[in-house]
Amino acid sequence: MTVVGADATITGIARLLGVVLVCYLVAGQPLLGAWNARRFERQLAAGSAGASVAASVAGRSARMHRYSRSIALECVLIAGALIVVGTGTGLRLSDVGIGWPRVSHGHAPFTIVGALGVVGSIGVLIVLRQLATQRPIAMSGPPAVTRLAPTDDSERRRFGLLVVTSGLGEELAYRGVLLGVFAAIAPGIAPARAVVVAALVTALAHAYQGVSGMLTNGVVGGCLAVVYLGTASLLLPVLLHIALDLRLVAAASRGATPAPARLAAAKV
Fold first, then answer.
1. How many Å apart are CA 158 and CA 246, to the nearest integer?
2. Tens of each residue's pLDDT in the chain, 268 residues
3. Among 117, 115, 88, 71, which Cα is nearest to 176's?
4. How far apart are CA 153 and CA 166, in angstroms?
């Protein structure tokens, strides 16, 4: 396992933009995530004060708005990450994981294990979907996540779009650009330290989920960083990230009442 982009350089405006993006990931994203979560909770609380039907409609509206806001934020994150690479001097797409997983020079074991993980995750999604068509699935997780569970087809579709943009945006930012900037600014950083950096920053981004959510997402972020550095590609981490988050969609029963699924996702 080696640090992707270890031989890269980043200078001028790209270096400044890279530092700004890293600062946002470390400090700005946790604050924005907390604000987004509090606004969502206020909307749910305001809606629950009415009759059951009105509360259900208000809850659906709050979830749909939360999905849309999060999708917009993820798109901005993707654009910011691509701007950093696009204006880079010496920071190439391959330095932030844009490319196919490698199998040479010791990368093969990581690529094989990562691919098996994707296949296994898809299998879990299929099983959850089949079970959810028969009965609601009661599972535990941080309330900040379980309250986002979609309850009808339109919510599932929008949440699915959120999952895809989240998988792309967070892996590109928290694994690709974050570690690429670190590798360019701090040459010689050890892979283990790069994994720790990715895990810590990912945990901070999920502070709104509480201590348990931070620990869970920190561990997941570290594991995805290992897959990324081991394969020198973001492809498998993105697919794994999407599969983890899609569990909320797969576990949601068709025509269910609000919040039938209680399952913590890697990131929402």
1. 12
2. 787 767 777 777 877 888 888 899 999 989 988 888 888 888 877 766 555 666 677 778 888 988 998 999 999 989 988 888 877 666 778 888 888 998 888 889 999 999 999 999 889 888 887 877 777 666 666 777 778 888 788 888 899 999 999 999 999 999 998 888 888 887 788 889 999 999 999 999 998 888 888 999 999 999 999 999 999 999 999 999 999 888 877 766 554 444 433 344 444 4
3. 88
4. 20
